[in-house]
């Protein structure tokens, strides 16, 4: 992504007197024109980058200018490295080069301590098992974001209805272990959030769009998923055989021992298809105690499942 590339270029310029635009373009797999746009962005940020013409020319920092390596502390660099390492666990090794450049800034005498800091916390977003189709969608959408082109796909919503969409992509969002695309939907002429797992036949369109400036506060994933007015109290009972599932999904303060090795859990959830799918996922380990209408609905769903296996 662009911010990674800009930071990588700055770190390269800190460590090399001159570098060719073509070499940078090949390194980051972009055009030379994109590199020159990046140089303009770096200049606008207050770091004077100069392009020297001629056979021995290239791109470098202005003569006499020195970027303060202490602009970021070792702890801050370690935090950036850890964050990049975590993201790379899900989106492939595209941040490897940037992580190497950050490591190169650390003096050799401090490298062991730096490595220790970057392994104190590891966040691995990757799923257990293979995730090929989703990785392909992520790669295509990242390309579309870089190129500023719209995408088209077939989309199945939460109710199972399929529709064709043309979307101007704005942001890829990892929320609750699932990837989403936030973009301007041509069908509804408004910004929508699309779950990648529900996309089919994803392709880049030839249509180029001009990105709007959308304030972060307007993004839907920053808002609460569950509003108190839309939720209801639910009382669950986990058997002794399923207590480990309760401990995996609920905070210890929500677990009330039942005296027989199991737990009673009191929580608030919105009543929708997600809730029933969530509860069914516990199988026979859970029983809904309250409210009664959810008990009835769970009984109907369980009977329907049982009928399929008769």
Provide the fold topology:
Layout: H1 2-15, H2 21-28, H3 32-44, E1 49-52, E2 58-61, H4 74-91, H5 96-105, H6 111-118, H7 132-147, E3 149-156, E4 162-175, E5 178-185, E6 190-195, E7 199-208, E8 231-238, H8 243-249, E9 255-257, E10 263-270, H9 273-280, E11 286-290, H10 292-308
Helix pairs in contact: 1-3, 1-5, 2-3, 4-5, 4-6
**Poorly predicted runs:** none
What Rg, in angstroms, do the CA atoms define?
26 Å
How would you sum up the global shape? extended
Please state roughly what percent of the residues sit in beta strands, choosing from under 5%, 5-15%, 15-25%, 25-35%, 35-45% or over 45%.
25-35%
- Domain module count: 4
CATH architecture of the largest domain: Roll
Q: Portion of residues in helices? A: 25-40%
Distance between the termini: 52 Å
CATH class of the largest domain: Mainly Beta
Please state the structural category. Answer: alpha+beta
Report mean pLDDT, rounded to a whole number. 80
Tell me the CATH topology of the largest domain. SH3 type barrels
Helical element count?
Answer: 10
- How many distinct beta strands? 11
Element pattern in H and E:
HHHEEHHHHEEEEEEHEEHEH
Walk across the major sheet and give the strand order: 6-5-4-3-7
Largest sheet: 5 strands, antiparallel
InterPro entries: CBASS_pafABC_assoc_protein, DeoR_HTH, HTH_11, PafC-like, WCX_dom, WH-like_DNA-bd_sf, WH_DNA-bd_sf, WYL_dom
Protein name: Transcriptional regulator
Keywords: Transcription, Transcription regulation
Organism: Paenibacillus borealis
């Amino acid at each position: 992504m662009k911010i990674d590339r800009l930071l990588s270029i700055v770190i390269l310029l800190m460590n090399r007197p001159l570098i060719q635009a073509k070499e940078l373009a090949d390194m980051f797999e972009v055009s030379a024109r994109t590199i020159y746009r990046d140089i303009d962005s770096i200049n606008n940020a207050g770091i004077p980058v100069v392009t020297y013409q001629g056979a021995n020319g290239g791109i470098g920092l202005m003569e006499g200018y020195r970027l303060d390596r202490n602009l970021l502390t070792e702890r801050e660099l370690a935090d950036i490295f850890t964050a990049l390492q975590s993201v790379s666990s899900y989106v492939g090794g595209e941040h490897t080069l940037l992580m190497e450049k950050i490591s190169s800034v650390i003096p050799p005498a401090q490298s062991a301590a730096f490595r220790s800091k970057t392994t104190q916390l590891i966040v691995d977003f990757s799923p257990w098992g293979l995730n090929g189709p989703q990785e392909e969608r992520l790669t295509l959408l990242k390309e579309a974001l870089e190129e500023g082109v719209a995408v088209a796909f077939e989309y199945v919503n939460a109710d199972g209805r399929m529709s064709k969409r043309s979307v101007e992509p704005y942001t890829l969002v990892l929320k609750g272990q699932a990837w989403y695309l936030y973009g301007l939907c041509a069908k509804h002429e408004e910004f929508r959030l699309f779950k990648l797992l529900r996309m089919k036949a994803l392709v880049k369109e030839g249509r180029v769009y001009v990105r709007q400036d959308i304030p972060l506060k307007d993004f839907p994933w920053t808002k609460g998923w569950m509003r108190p007015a839309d939720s209801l109290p639910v009382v669950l009972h986990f058997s002794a055989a399923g207590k480990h599932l309760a401990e995996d999904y609920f905070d210890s303060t929500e677990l009330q021992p039942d005296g027989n090795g199991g737990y009673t859990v009191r929580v608030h959830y919105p009543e929708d298809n997600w809730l029933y799918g969530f509860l069914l996922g516990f199988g026979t380990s859970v029983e809904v105690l309250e409210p009664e209408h959810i008990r009835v609905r769970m009984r109907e769903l369980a009977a329907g499942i049982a009928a399929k296996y008769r």
